[in-house]
Write a structure and sequence with these properties.
about 160 residues; alpha+beta; 4 helices; transferase
């Protein structure tokens, strides 16, 4: 069994998180917008939140990052990224199951957004019990998923 831990992110982790994002999400970003290195670095500089992001370690090795927002009505999984060398080992599943347990204990839903082109992640989230709630963003490029029971009728598109 892999020992999975989280540690706080510091400002020194910025470049690691950028390179991780490039490795884990680069192909998906390229498929939608194309990868512009400076555009992505600027986006990262605005998004990097060391007081909220956490580094995921597996058996003491840095393998990814996690960003979770605890909102009044739900737990929002803002970002989970695992380096491709560490995907498919159950690390993400274990972390998400922990968040699902926490949400149930608090009487809340777990909610997240996933890029429409990231079918592997969508499949994982469905296996773990999340459902598509809506599609949003320019050209519906994002899918909002939640443990909230699906509503009858067509999926709302905003």
């Amino acid at each position: 069994m892999t020992a999975i831990d989280l540690r706080p992110t510091t400002s020194a982790d910025s470049e690691y998180c950028f390179q991780l994002h490039k490795a884990a999400m680069g192909a998906y970003i390229t498929a939608i917008w194309g990868w512009g290195e400076q555009i992505q670095r600027d986006f990262h500089a605005r998004a990097f939140t060391p007081d909220r992001w956490q580094i995921i370690t597996a058996d003491g090795t840095e393998v990814g990052m996690l960003d979770v927002e605890h909102r009044p009505t739900d737990i929002y999984l803002a970002r989970i990224e695992l380096h491709p060398d560490h995907q498919g080992r159950g690390i993400g599943s274990q972390l998400i199951r922990s968040l699902l347990h926490q949400a149930r204990q608090q009487g809340q839903d777990l909610t997240l957004d996933v890029l429409v082109v990231n079918q592997r992640a969508q499949a994982l989230y469905r296996r773990l019990g999340l459902h598509e709630v809506t599609r949003h963003g320019e050209n519906d490029i994002k899918i909002r998923m939640s443990t909230e029971p699906p509503q009858p009728g067509p999926i709302h598109r905003s």
